[in-house]
């Protein structure tokens, strides 16, 4: 059991953008190492951690090539990009002292295990962090949906949506609307009806159906993950 908080098993959703640091696109090693240290510290406290990582940091560089491309082909490119991020994160986590396994929904046996639910749960029980790469393995689904799906499958107690420089959920985009109001608590259904940018509708619906709470918080603050896991009210809680 976790020593200092209410959660024993979490699913952390990391956007690709959170790995960029100040770069226009790509992966900032110092940023990845900082995130890895936060995750390793939470893991050391006894929390079982699953991670789904996006690929916005890499796919920005491919956007021009993907313009006008078949949607399914472009989505598969994005899935492959998540594997690159997963491997970078695995290396940083193990450097920080946290044993880590990468499981991919797309078979790449040389660098990652295939995604097998029971094996993933066994890794978690054995004290290993599991990074889920390759999205859902299907085009037309986002990594948000992959996060909701994997969280339900491994019986996580909460989905942690780590945002890059955004404190939580707002009534509108705070970068566009200066009058946007911060929302500390909201239900899944309200978020769907109001079309708030928590995660995509498919992912939100999946969390609603499985009673999965979602904590949306700013990953840019040091120690943010630990504060959330310890039960501190950080960012926005989306619940039933």
Automatic annotation (TrEMBL):
Coiled-coil ranges from the UniProt annotation: none
Location(s), subcellular: Cytoplasm
Cross-referenced InterPro entries: AceGlu_kinase-like_sf, Asp/Glu/Uridylate_kinase, Uridylate_kinase, Uridylate_kinase_bac
The UniProt record lists the keyword RNA-binding: no
GO CC annotation: cytoplasm
Keywords of this entry: ATP-binding, Cytoplasm, Kinase, Nucleotide-binding, Pyrimidine biosynthesis, Transferase
Pfam families for the chain: AA_kinase
Pathway connected to this protein: Pyrimidine metabolism; CTP biosynthesis via de novo pathway; UDP from UMP (UMPK route): step 1/1
GO annotation (BP), single: UDP biosynthetic process
Name recorded for this polypeptide: Uridylate kinase
